[in-house]
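Example record

One chain of 86 residues, shown exactly as stored in the release files.
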Amino acid sequence: MGVLRWIRNNLLLVLTVSGVFVGTAIGFVLRPHDLSEETIMLISFPGDVLMRMLKMIILPLIISSLISGWNVCSSSLVNQNNIFPR
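Predicted structure tokens for this chain:
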């Protein structure tokens, strides 16, 4: 019962790790076969789409983090060091 409860509580982790193992096994099984370029493109398409989506998400996150960090630093300098006296 404890194992089933742990699997239910950590289902995303279990599915991610099992997906990695299944993908690796499929890769080793299909490697010796001569696959056409079209088949390889069809197999790699979901991974390419995922990587493009991650790139689209990461760049705005980095830019917004830099902007908010800059604002925090500049406001703390103004308040602490009296750069702009009143």
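Notes: Residues 37-81 form the longest helix (45 residues).
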